[in-house]
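Quick one, tokens below. Sequence please?
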């Protein structure tokens, strides 16, 4: 156990309160410590970021080395290229590593091909201005010579003929001769895609019109809708433009490297292995927790705040095996309230209740812009600060969030209330702490005791099952090590 890791800083955004209003971070509370993930799981690979200097040189070198090996011969000097990004990449480890990869892609493509017309197209979900904020924050508008724009699902669409009918992408995504898919192996919404075709998912989400991306949300549901992204990617239209993919190789503890490939499905297999092996251990360890107070303290909407590389929405479902494709529906997916009756209970017996280990949620700092009333309705929630409560009351997607939550003046008063009400002193903080996680001392002791048993169970029993269900050859490990 160590002193707490500095959390990801509060950031100015129209989706969150002014950073000056975040008076105290949860990591500053008494009895908080940190655990490094390499101490919990020593077999996690070495990382190139974060480091002592928080230098991005390792990320830049890994990106250039991998990009120099990928085939770019299809791109000619007079062609146009759209570099495609997704908003979630900018919330990884402060956002700088993903921005650095996007810069490296531009530099190497220009160097190898002589192409000068290189644009950045950054897709987003529900917070339509979010990627515009990221583009300015990381200087990508300047780096791309004014050719960097955020695209939203309500922008002009383009029809894409697929084997399942006409689907719709975003015109600005595909208005170039070539596209380069820049993403990451961070698992993010395992409760959503269940680690199936995760590398392909942006083609049905970040790069798609709202009518098509809504197949995930309102029509087919997340698992059934996975094939929509694959259908779009495999269309003649997209294949005629696809050059290659460049992914940040991410673990729950940091950036491991950069993986580039002209074959997205080969890269997808590697991403699947990474998601199941590295993140599966953290997810399974979280499932061992029997009682805790969860503290949200990260510049993202409620479900997307991070601890140990895992988002809060996944923790809400940690009482089930989110990687087991034969397991029942996870407790939380999109518009989960559709699975619940007016009595507050699941409509079907096979739908599990949300993670009963979460005795209370202290909302110290998290953004609006994503429907989150479900969390406050089913988890006792205390929001710190009147200003934050007011922000949620004004958000069209969260007008009922504060109907279920209490407000505390300070973080300390909220925590004192939580300790007395829940009877537990185990705390897990979702603050994006890089390399490890910030928790209470009692929680640290519990996790350190359970981690070796969890690691053995994942390696020997769960991982082979997860990979077999997804058709991934275990020998892929050798390719990763090489």
């Amino acid at each position: 156990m160590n002193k707490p890791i500095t959390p990801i800083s509060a950031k100015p955004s129209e989706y969150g309160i002014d950073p000056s209003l975040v008076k105290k971070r949860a990591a500053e509370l008494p009895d908080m410590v940190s655990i490094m993930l390499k101490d919990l799981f020593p077999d996690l690979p070495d990382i190139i970021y974060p480091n002592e200097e928080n230098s991005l040189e390792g990320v830049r070198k890994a990106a250039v080395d991998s990009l120099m090996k990928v085939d770019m011969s299809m791109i000619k000097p007079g062609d146009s290229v759209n570099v495609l990004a997704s908003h979630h990449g900018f919330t990884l480890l402060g956002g700088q590593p993903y921005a650095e990869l996007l810069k490296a892609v531009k530099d190497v493509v220009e160097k190898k091909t002589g192409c000068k017309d290189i644009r950045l197209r950054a897709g987003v979900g529900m917070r339509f201005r979010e990627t515009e904020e990221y583009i300015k924050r990381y200087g990508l508008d300047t780096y791309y010579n004014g050719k960097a724009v955020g695209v939203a699902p309500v922008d002009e669409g383009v029809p894409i003929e697929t084997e399942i009918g006409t689907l719709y992408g975003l015109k600005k995504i595909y208005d170039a001769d070539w596209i380069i898919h820049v993403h990451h192996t961070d698992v993010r919404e395992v409760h959503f895609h269940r680690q199936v075709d995760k590398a392909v998912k942006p083609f049905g989400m970040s790069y798609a019109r709202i009518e098509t991306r809504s197949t995930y949300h309102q029509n087919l549901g997340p698992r059934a809708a996975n094939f929509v992204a694959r259908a779009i990617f495999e269309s003649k239209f997209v294949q005629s433009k696809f050059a290659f993919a460049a992914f940040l190789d991410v673990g729950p503890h940091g950036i491991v490297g950069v993986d580039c490939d002209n074959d997205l499905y080969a890269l997808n297999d590697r991403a699947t292995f990474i998601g199941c092996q590295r993140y599966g251990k953290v997810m399974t360890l979280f499932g061992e927790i029997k009682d805790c107070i969860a503290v949200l303290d990260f510049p993202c909407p409620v479900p997307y705040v991070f601890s140990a590389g895992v988002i809060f929405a996944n923790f809400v479902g940690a009482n089930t095996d989110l990687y087991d494709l034969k397991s029942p529906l996870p407790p939380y997916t999109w518009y989960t309230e559709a699975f619940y009756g007016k009595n507050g209970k699941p409509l079907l017996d096979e739908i599990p209740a949300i993670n009963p280990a979460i005795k209370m949620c202290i909302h110290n700092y998290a953004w609006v812009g994503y429907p989150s009333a479900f969390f406050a309705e089913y988890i006792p929630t205390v929001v710190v600060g009147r200003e934050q409560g007011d922000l949620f009351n004004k958000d069209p997607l969260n007008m009922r969030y504060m109907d279920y939550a209490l407000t505390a003046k300070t973080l300390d008063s909220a925590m004192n209330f939580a300790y007395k009400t829940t009877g537990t002193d185990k705390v897990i903080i979702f603050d994006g702490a890089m390399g490890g996680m910030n928790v209470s001392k009692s929680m640290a002791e519990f996790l350190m005791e359970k981690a070796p048993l969890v690691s053995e169970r994942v390696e020997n029993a769960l991982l082979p099952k997860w990979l077999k269900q997804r058709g991934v050859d275990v020998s892929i490990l050798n390719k990763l090590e090489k």
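The chain has two domains: 19-44+281-458, 57-251. The longest helix spans residues 441-469.
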